[in-house]
Amino acid sequence: MLKLDLSGITGFVGEINTDAARAAEKKAAALPMSGWMRLPMQTDAELDALRAAGRRIAEHSDALVVIGAGGSSLGARAIIEALPDSLGVQDVYFAGDNLSGAYTAKLLKTLAEREFSVVVTSKSGTTTEPAVALRVFLKLLRERYGKDFDGRLFVVAGAGRSPLREFALARGCALFDIPEDVGGRYSALTAAGLLPAAARGIDIGALVRGAREQAEQSGEAALRYAAARQALYSKSFRTELFASFEPCARALGEWWKQLFGESEGKNGGGIFPASVSFTGDLHSMGQYIQEGRRDIFETIVDFKKSPGDAVIPENGEFDDGFDFLTGRGISSVNDVAREAVRAAHIAGGVPVAELSLPGLDEASLGALIYFFEYACAVSACISGIDPFDQPGVEAYKNIMLRELNNLPKTSE
Ligand code: PA5
Q1: Burial classification of residue 28, based on how many CB atoms lie within 10 Å of its CB (0-12 exposed, 13-18 middle, 19 or more buried)
Q2: Is residue 409 included in any domain, yes or no?
Q3: How many angstroms is it from 226 CA to the middle of ligand 1?
Q4: pLDDT at 39 exceeding the cut of 80
Q5: Contact (CB, 8 A) for 253 and 244
Q6: Do 177 and 253 sit in the same domain of this protein?
Q7: Does the bond joining 110 to the residue before it have cis omega, within 30 degrees of 0?
Q8: Is residue 114 part of a domain?
Q9: Do residue 229 and residue 366 come from a single domain?
Q10: What is the pLDDT of residues 323-362, one digit of tens each?
Q11: Residues 40 and 24 both lie in one domain
Q12: Is 123 in the pocket of ligand 1 (CB under 6 A)?
């Protein structure tokens, strides 16, 4: 289903040798946090429970607030924004991924007129942003729906002991697990990503099936991609751009950035992950990519069948020189732009890997998520990095928590 074209890379690094990737694959699979590799094997009963909770949310709410930070939010957002509108809950809002009072106040105002439910996701149950947001939305739930929230609070927590899990059990909330051996940024295909997706009416069975099919393949494409990235890094290509020509894949780029950034950015090294959405970003980042520092490479994700299309009518009002496009689908123009960008970037010294999928549907997205997770783990292990820890994120937290103890109160 997923095809990897490295012909835009080999001109820079030669043929890709996967020997180190094969050894790294074994190392990654042996690490204690590699449980996500088995994830697409969820049972039908597990999926049915998620579907039932999703239906419940959609039945009594027209808005869903998904509270979570980092891996506990980015996967859900990537899936929901990438896939076309479905029959589930009308609007999904994200909270607990920032500490902006303005953002929270605006969301509270938005919810004033809406029937809403809340999904709160935190593996540890001890992350500041979701803890703050949960307080705000718990209060709103109690005010609007009474002390039992009318069954509108759904909790996704680590399977081990955590304050959030204890709370959910004590309150009798619907509770779903993130397995102990799955880290946040590898949790898109757990309840963390699947419950909000199910509430939105997305076919989570097809998502998981796509991932499973990808997992059942030999992993050859992921190994080649991982090996190509490391070959580029060893030739001083230090920045990788995730590029898509579908704006609905922007959040997927954010998810991808966290996956690779938190997995590989350690010990003073690692490829710096950034993302662009074309053709829009050609008018902002295009110049830099074409002629700036020559340490960038690009991974273009191409969804072969566009998720929708519109035909270009003639201008009919004035001659701007573009009427030769009359009758063409906008997607076909996008395809030509993609080919042009690829050719120009390679000619300008930017190696380009291209991943293509049949379309932007559940199965393709599931396959893509699994592909990137696998490639990321292997890539980190090639360079001797543990892909599953994130010791660096504690540094600011320690300082922040010390300072927060001295923060004066603001009255409501
Ligand atoms: O990938 C990770 O482990 C992190 O990004 C976490 O997902 C993030 O810090 C949120 O953690 P938690 O789910 O424990 O609240």
Answers
A1: buried
A2: no
A3: 24
A4: no
A5: yes
A6: no
A7: no
A8: yes
A9: yes
A10: 999 999 999 999 999 999 999 999 999 999 999 999 999 9
A11: no
A12: yes
- For residue 187, the domain's CATH number is 3.40.50.10490
Mean pLDDT of 92-117: 97
Q: Residue 1's pLDDT is what?
A: 82
Count other Cβ atoms within 10 Å, centred on residue 27.
17
Q: Choose one of 73, 74, 127, 134 to mutate for the ligand 1 pocket test, by most ligand atoms within 8 angstroms of C-beta.
A: 127
Known catalytic residues?
262, 283, 397
Is 345 inside any structural domain? yes
* 363 in a structural domain: yes
State in Å: Cα 280 to ligand 1 middle.
30
Atom number of ligand 1 nearest to Cα 124: 14
Q: Atom 8 in ligand 1: which residue has the minimum CA distance?
A: 70
Question: Interior CA angle at 53 toward 52 and 55, to 5°?
Answer: 65
Q: Is 72 in the pocket of ligand 1 (CB under 6 A)?
A: yes
- Is residue 270's pLDDT more than 90? yes
Rounded mean pLDDT of the chain? Answer: 95
pLDDT digits over 387-407, tens only?
A: 999 989 888 888 898 898 888
Tokens of 292: 């700036």
Cα of 69 to ligand 1 centre, how many Å?
6
Q: For residue range 294-310, list pLDDT tens digits in order.
A: 999 999 999 998 888 99
Nearest residue CA, atom 15 of ligand 1? 122
Query: At residue 412, does pLDDT exceed 70?
Result: no
Q: Assess whether 26 and 44 both reside in one domain.
A: no
Quote the ligand 1 centre to 329 CA distance (angstroms). Answer: 41
Domain boundary among 190, 209, 228: 209
Our answer on whether the CB atom of 35 is closer than 6 Å to any ligand 1 atom is no
Judging by DSSP bridges, how do beta strands 239-244 and 153-158 pair with one another? unpaired
pTM of the model: 0.96
How do beta strands 352-359 and 3-6 pair?
A: antiparallel
Angle subtended at Cα 214 by Cα 251 and Cα 388, rounded to the nearest 5 degrees: 60
Q: Which helix (H) or strand (E) holds 1?
A: none
Q: Give the pLDDT confidence score for residue 228 in this predicted structure.
A: 98
Range of the domain at 340: 3-30+217-382
Domain count, the chain: 2
> 122 and 152, same structural domain?
yes
**Atom 5 in ligand 1: which residue has the minimum CA distance?**
70
Q: Which amino acid is at 30?
A: A
- Asked if residue 326 and residue 284 are part of one domain, the reply reads yes
Averaged pLDDT for residues 28-51: 90
